Write the structure tokens for this entry.
Amino acid sequence: MDSLGEEELAQMVRDYWESDQSIAPLSVRTSKLRPKKSQSSLQDILLEAKDIETQVLDKALMYVRGMGEPSSLKKWVVKRLQMDGFEASLCKTSWVSAFGHKVFHFTGDYEYIDVMIMDKNISNKATRLIVDMDFRSQFELARPTQTYKELINTLPSVFVGTEERLDKVISLLCSAAKESLKEKGLHVPPWRKAKYMQSKWLSNNCKKVSIVPNPELSMDASEEKNSTTCCPSIF
């Protein structure tokens, strides 16, 4: 019998943690979240978007509207942003995780887009925007409470925002996920915690990959420049 691959083993661990019934006290299993307050807080964070964030979001949505599901969606969006004058890059983060008291080790990795916006009023001052084309799915749970479902539905599928605003979303959603899992009598696995989720977008172990903006290339035939180390995260 072939040995399990690293990713298969990792998925088995995830399935166990998120499906196993715990012996949480009845008071925990029957506790109620405050959905209106959580949704209101999340909406407030999302509404903090500045004009440039809204502009980049509108561009990203325009690029993919009616495009279907190209295999290199992120590269395609990076190319289009560059062609429109933005300093956009594909970012790849990676990290090592240990679960079950360090019994299971495997690496995590993630890809997203970042856009550096230079402040015209302050020389050498840049704001880093995180662009995630599949944001909502990163917070989905297998067996969510109705409260958590309603909160997730508030999230946009495509997110554009600063590191500070993203961190606020992560903290709120991870706290809500913890309550949802406990209410269902489930364990809270490490990969549902804020520190793990932050590693996806805010890890220091990050490389930027610039995509050559050649309009004559097909969506799936992007050429990559040399990778560079991503700018240090503020976290």
